[in-house]
Fold this protein.
Amino acid sequence: MYAFLRGAGCPWRAIRLLVRQPALWRYVAIPVGLNLLVGVVLYATLLLAGFRFIAMLVEGWPAWIAWLLRGLLVITLFVTLGYVLVRFGVVLGAPFYRKNAVKPCTLGQGYKAHAVLSSQTCDKIAV
């Protein structure tokens, strides 16, 4: 139970670390900004196209089937767009993940990452 509560407090410790170390903000702000930009573009373009396609697809069906099919297709559209957004987020954020993992570790020790941590250790930390 202690491990669960300690893990649940990690977001608060991360926020406290970001407040104390403003140099880390760029490692957070850039990936978040990129994901927001990609998300807005994806949802603005593909969502509109998806709604048009769904309207065209259910045209001519009986009302109750069209309503049910439209609902299922809209849910499928949102899930698919969410998955695509996550995949883009992983690819666009990948250069920052290693830095996000290593930098707080080295800040606590006061050493440079390459002098203290081997590349294998950094890779284990980043995973």
